[in-house]
């Protein structure tokens, strides 16, 4: 369990083509073994999130955590948000989904909408897709010329350096499912009326571009996995595993902040006396 983050950490030389999307690194049990573990780790995550929030509220701690979820359609980003992020108090979460940029967004630098969505102090930010779309779909679809997206890798590294320096811990997760599993998931969306809303005909066009996406994901990992903001490569064919793993990544990030409950900044005895007299 505790070795999950290290096992998922992207290492230079790792190849996207070789990812075993069906693997469960660091967890040898089955789906039913994972359920009680997930429940108890959710509690730990909720406690850590409350500590982060409490330290900001009571002690003006400026730190925050930003979870960046990047992955193809049906990789399970929505499930991570629902089941992992959903385990913590929404008061302390700032969630943003990044879709096709609006007219207004297109009038600005691509990082403009990203900056506007950064988590405030004491919060956990969640990016459901992110600035990495600007070197993924944008690159695959030639939405800007190569000399433009080419410069973005360094620019993103500088941007993330700035975030880390200002007290934000980045937890970057690249989610991968096999084409077969993606097909299953998309079929489910077509067969279940409660899932039609998740389906877009364009998902199939993106799926057919997988070889180009694979190259773009490889470049993203090679060029933006830094020591201060490393990527994690998450196998997502087994959704129960990917959820447990992201829970572990967030727990690790929060534990590194070494948080404790902020002490009272008032005289407890005196307040008790005042209370009983009131
Ligand atoms: P979904 O996450 O399924 O709601 O889909 C959002 C869509 O918006 C995906 O196809 C993304 O690739 C696309 N998208 C997100 N960011 C950008 C961007 N910067 N430029 C173009 N398309 C984007
Ligand atoms: Mg989608």
TrEMBL record:
Pfam families: PPK2
GO biological process: polyphosphate metabolic process
Sample GO molecular function, one term: phosphotransferase activity, phosphate group as acceptor
Keywords of the record: Kinase, Transferase
Disordered: region residues: 19-38
Signal peptide feature range: none
Every Polyphosphate kinase-2-related domain range: 43-256
NCBIfam families: PPK2_rel_1
Protein's name in the database: Polyphosphate kinase
Organism: Mycolicibacterium holsaticum
